Amino acid sequence: MIQWTRRSISLLALATVSGLALAQDGGDTLTLGEPIARSIEKEGVHNYTLTLSESEFVYLVADQHTVDVVVTVFNPAGEKIGTYDGPARGGENVQFFSKEAGDYRVEIKAFEDQAGDYEVEVRRAEPKATTPEGLVEQLIAPYDDPEVPGGVIAIARDGEVTYARAFGSANLRYGIPWAIDTRTNIGSTSKQFTAFAICLLAERGELSLDDDVRKHIPELPDLGETVTLRHLLTHTSGYREFLNTLYMSGRRIDRGDSIDRKELIEVVQRQPALQNSPGAEWNYNNTGFGLLAAVVERVTGEAFPDWMETNVFHPVGMYDTFVRHDQSEIIPNSSQGYSPAEEGGFTDSRDLGGAMGAGGIYSTVADLAKWMDNLATGAYGGTHIVEQMKSPYTLTNGKSTNYGFGLFIDKQDGLDRVQHGGADTAHRSNFLYYPALDAGVVTQSNHAAFDGSVANRIAGAFFEKEIEALGINKAPEEQAEETPAGEFDPASFDPESFDAFVGRFEMEEVPGFVLEFTREDDHYFTQATNQPKLEIFPIAPNRFDLRVVEANVEFHVDDDGGVETITLHQNGAHPANRVEDKWEPDDEALAVYAGRYFSEELETFFELVVEDSTLVLKHRRLDPITLKANKRDQFAGSMPIALVDFERDAEGNVTAFLASNGRTKDVRFEKAK
């Protein structure tokens, strides 16, 4: 609901293990399964060399004892194939498959200005699995340990689980392993059930999807435009997202602070205006689905968990699925959520409060397989409801979203897909259904750092032959945009032509989020706001692949050769526009922002101070937030305040700032006199 080199080493003793060898400048030897402790200095960089055969699987761990490190892997051609920057302490898990034989370089850097100790260990080095089941075993390697939070992976067909693999621990305190029938928090995967409930009530004539939400919850404020149930279902209401809003006020939702359901309504009641005209913008919003759960209760006169059990879950045969009433309710045979601890190991993570409707459902992979079958057949509720849920919503400007009612509708490698992920404080969930195959994948985990890409990779492996039989290679829109294979040679790209692309581009959908592009000789880089710098690689004269994630960026060249706009292709097309050069204020320029600021809406103070030539935002319950200048009077931060826009009076004095974090926008903080 609410998506984380070292000193040279020689691995000389591994000639018998898939031909793997790690070499270190200093001549030290690392043997498989025998960790070696090292220290790294500030701005330190350690490099390792791995000599691999073609198609090998490697799993190594950098155990971060007293330092946070970033691990990057390069192939024999020197091209970056992966960057790993997860938890600040504990294991930094590195997994990859070699495509060609040769020397791979593993670069390990100390994060920012840190220094300290770590251990490095190669835990697996073996040929890449040739079966889907074998691939699962390799992909779950970091979690397949009784002392680590784990999960379950399942393949579903025709309402039945045809393959399942449980791994790791469901409860570390009592040493309870994960089982295929372990109940677990599915986070925002819950939203489709709330949507189904609303559609079911509409089919029964008990409400209309185009009802004003205030018809059912009259204590919500009139903010000038009608917000309907349909707007709530499609994340287009314009209401503040309550979790991000409460986090901004100092509530530590990441540490399990209790949130009562009534606070969701109170957040909307204190909102001075809608963030967008209803239906005009898509902005993922837990508030809407929490309100929908309240609508079910107001219409039916029953508690949401009880109504869902008798009207949704049991009719589909889902007898191991429950809506959790609150954070303290005990769900038998369930997994406990865990997050990586600051100093290594794991800590208990309490479920999110106030999540009912937007999340808060516990289920099993077998029950979700039954639900997947109902989405395919409409056996319960009717095909009309499931087709509504699977139909993308169209905004008022005519643009289509990739979201229906509680479900994302997209493509994977050209194959139509219906899906929704879920993330509570620590639990992670993925639900992927492929209509053309009448099959899908479900993954569940109680590990906050579980790799969400595993579900996609498992699907590709299990359904590869069926996808090939359909004659699908990649999405038609991707085929149209990319240069046909064989017509572009990356080696032919002129490095100096990239200079037209150099600069900063702000995302239209997320104001203040900037992609900056730079060149170093014949290497090209992008760096997003508050994210690591990544190398990008030419795949067309005006298109570059990020490689470390499934994304590429397209530069739109004007007739005069200028570039004012780009499109980031990552789960859709996301436009961005060129902005002015980065502003670099000195201490004197920063000092005018210092002071104490109060939000009447959130009833909370923030203090702005200048420390070491940096503007820092402080709150008594939150970690300090370092602000970095985007442009004059605009700074980028981090959660829960990711963007700060300052306001000035007629005399040029700073009087207020507007705080945003994507889902909650433009919360006003007045500077105290």
Describe, in plain words, how this protein is organized in 3D.
- By secondary structure, this protein is an alpha+beta fold.
- It has four domains: 3-128, Jelly Rolls (Sandwich), CATH 2.60.120; 184-239 and 274-469, Beta-lactamase; 483-579, Lipocalin; 587-671, Lipocalin (Beta Barrel), CATH 2.40.128.50.
- It contains 14 helices and 38 strands.
- It starts with 21 loop residues before the first strand and ends with a strand.
- Mean pLDDT is 89; it is low at 1-27 and 475-486.
- Helix/strand/pairing category: alpha+beta
The total domain count is 4
Number of DSSP E strands: 38
CATH class of the largest domain: Alpha Beta
Mean pLDDT: 89
Distance between the termini: 39 Å
CATH superfamily of the largest domain: DD-peptidase/beta-lactamase superfamily
Major beta sheet summary: 8 strands, antiparallel, barrel
The neighbouring-strand order within the major sheet is 23-24-25-26-27-28-29-30
- Rg (CA only): 26 Å
CATH topology of the largest domain: Beta-lactamase
What is the helix tally?
A: 14
User: Considering DSSP H and I runs of 4 or more, what fraction of the residues is helical?
Assistant: 10-25%
**Form type:** globular
Contiguous runs where pLDDT drops below 50 for at least 5 residues = 1-27, 475-486
